[in-house]
Amino acid sequence: MKVINLINKSNKTAFSFEVLPPLKGTSIEKLYHSIDCLLEFDPQYINITTHRSEYEYKELGNELFRRYEIRKRPGTVAVAAAIQQRYNVTVIPHILCGGFTKTDTEYVLIDLQLLGINNILLLRGDKSKSDTAFTPSVNGYSHATELQEQINLFNQGKFIDGSEMKDHGTPFSYGVTCYPEKHEEAPNMESDIYWLKKKIENGAEYAVTQLFFDNRKYFDFLDRVKKEGINIPIIPGIKPLKRLSQLNTIPKTFKVDLPEDLAKEANKCKNDEDVRQLGIEWSIAQCKELMAHGAPSIHFYSYSAVNSIKEIAKKIF
């Protein structure tokens, strides 16, 4: 079932979460355990992230180095299929621009269609760690709107070389991402909303936000996009604080602010467990307010936070 239909049929705020594929060379059992912990809250769908390849350098001696391309978390399609089969829940693999060619994307779409997976989330993706700015792969895409064009053509039964499919299959339904505090590369919020509107015009059925800690930013964002005629569901993304180090790393990594009240309380914490408890309490309050204002779904970023999310979900679902 389409995600938009799963959201609309629910008579309450839907619950969903995002998982990462296992690291290369490790089993899927730890991931299964994480999902098992959250199943009691009836997740309407589970997202599976996709990770681009990165380059690493190995010293050969005599001041010579060899560059290796490595993807530390492969297997998004396989993980999505495994979760769908094991749990009979809707899965949403991520499709990226960064690190993938048009041909790579086409074969991923073919594999997903063969597996009966028809919901996807489209993202440009982050720049490579070795680049100072986002650089598309050769024969790849720079923007999610370009990726949408390929998906839309595929849905119409056309391959990237222009040839026609013999059997179209079930079209893909997709969502996109959005940023209540603005994408770090956007010159201003007006530009960011302009591109979100383009994504919707191209066929996006819903949008999932970057994580945030200040609900006012989310509500202000909703007001602004509605004034632009954007009426698709905007799903808030939540990640509870867990460690003292995150007070610095989260704002730096995700380009989001910590509200003054949260920062003050966090600075009183003496250890990671204090921060974890604060993160749970703050997220519960966040989610209750979001639900009171009619949030269609709450999407949790579960990496390293499954136990906290379980405690939060017990209080709100």
The CATH architecture assignment turns out to be: Alpha-Beta Barrel
Q: How far is the N terminus from the C terminus?
A: 22 Å
Task: Assign the CATH topology.
Answer: TIM Barrel
Q: What value does the Rg take, in angstroms?
A: 20 Å
What's the short story on this structure?
It is built from eleven helices and ten strands. The protein is α/β, with parallel strands linked by helices. Helix 2 (29-38) packs parallel to helix 11 (306-316) and helix 10 (272-292) runs parallel beside helix 11 (306-316).
Characterization of the model:
The chain has one domain (3-316): TIM Barrel (Alpha-Beta Barrel), CATH 3.20.20.220. Helix 2 (29-38) packs parallel to helix 11 and helix 10 (272-292) runs parallel beside helix 11. By secondary structure, it is an alpha/beta fold. The protein is 41% helix and 18% strand. The strands form two sheets. The chain has an eight-stranded parallel beta barrel, surrounded by five helices. It has a two-stranded antiparallel ribbon with strand order 3-4. It has helices at residues 3-9, 29-38, 76-87, 102-114, 144-155, 189-201, 215-227, 246-254, 260-268, 272-292, 306-316; strands at 14-19, 45-48, 54-61, 64-70, 90-96, 119-123, 173-178, 207-211, 234-238, 297-301. The protein is globular and about 60 Å long.
